[in-house]
Amino acid sequence: MGINNIFDPARFGKYYLKELNENKKSLLLQAVSFTLVLTIVLFIRENTLLDSEKSKLAFSFIYLIFLMTGAKYSSAFSKQIGLRSNKVMYLMVPSSTFEKFLTQIINITILFPSLFIASLFIAQYLSPLFYSLFWGGEIIFRVPFEGIYPYYGEDNIYGSGTILSFFYISTASLFLLGATIWQKNSFLKTFISLIGIHVLFTICMSIFVVHTDLTSIINMISLNLLEADTEKIKIFAKLSYTLFILIIWIISYLRLSELEINETKW
Question: Which of 160, 188, 224, 249 is deepest in the core (most CB within 10 A)?
């Protein structure tokens, strides 16, 4: 199989622009919805700007919105490959499986976060405007994203924002994998499955703690971490997350390829 059969830049560019053009109304509606919700959250926070705990709560809520909507966005891929009519149209598109999958990866790692960040940027300037209109006083426009990111600073061991970015991408990737496994109720089934895995892991760890002298192990690991080079820990954490995400993408791509092969057999 030639490389052009797997990936052709010109063909991929046309396919991706076609996808953007077909979904532009949906993307615009999402951007407007994000802007309204984030404006409300920041409007409420305006009155508690100096309250660090409430500021952290607002940031956590914003990140939770980002995480859950990103997961829902990833699960929406199941509609393209689940419904019979959509699946036929999806398979008829003159583009390779890899190009279709790459489109989804770009959407969840670049397009969706960019849409959310742009909405947050606009909401940050709408919030003080509405606050001034409702409660009076001078309109104060702050530096972009100032005060929105108070919870994880540069002194965090993983670096500012890095761990949250990796966590979002890994979560969205897991829900994309879920979309290739379950075409019906993909979001709900993936969510329940992840909860089940977490519960099972917790039970196994509890059993392990009961039958193991875990205190000495934890003390040994903590001592080694304290003596370890912080930069090495950062690199190890990033590499671990990257490897995990790549494994999820490979499995998702293989699942998508299998679905297309099975469909073309009929």
Answer: 249
Domains contained in the chain, number: 1
> 24-31: long-range contacts at Cβ-Cβ below 8 A with a sequence spacing of 24 or more?
27/111, 27/115, 30/69, 30/115, 31/115, 31/118, 31/119
Report how far residue 241's alpha carbon sits from residue 239's, in angstroms, rounded to the nearest whole number: 5
**pLDDT tens per residue across span 185-222:** 889 999 999 999 888 877 876 776 655 555 555 555 55
Give the domain range for residue 25.
Answer: 3-265
Any idea which residue has 């509405």 for tokens?
A: 130
Side-chain-side CA neighbours of 129 within 13 Å: the count stands at: 6
List the alpha helices (DSSP H) in 23-51: 24-46
Residues 77-103 pLDDT 10s: 887 765 554 555 555 666 788 888 999
Written as six digits, the tokens of 6 are 């797997």
Q: What is the distance in angstroms between the CA of the first residue and the CA of the last residue of the chain?
A: 23
Amino acid at 136: G
Q: Can you tell me the distance from the alpha carbon of 155 to that of 175, in angstroms, rounded to the nearest whole number?
A: 31
Distances, alpha carbon 221 to alpha carbons 226, 232, 237, 239, in Å: 9, 15, 15, 19
* Whole-number Å distance between alpha carbons of 70 and 16: 19
Q: Which of 154, 142, 144, 161 minimizes the C-alpha distance to 49? A: 142
Can you give the C-alpha Rg of the chain in angstroms?
Answer: 22
Tokens (6 digits) for 145:
């994203």
Token match 């709408």: residue?
A: 126
Structure tokens given for 21: 């053009």
- Model pTM score: 0.78
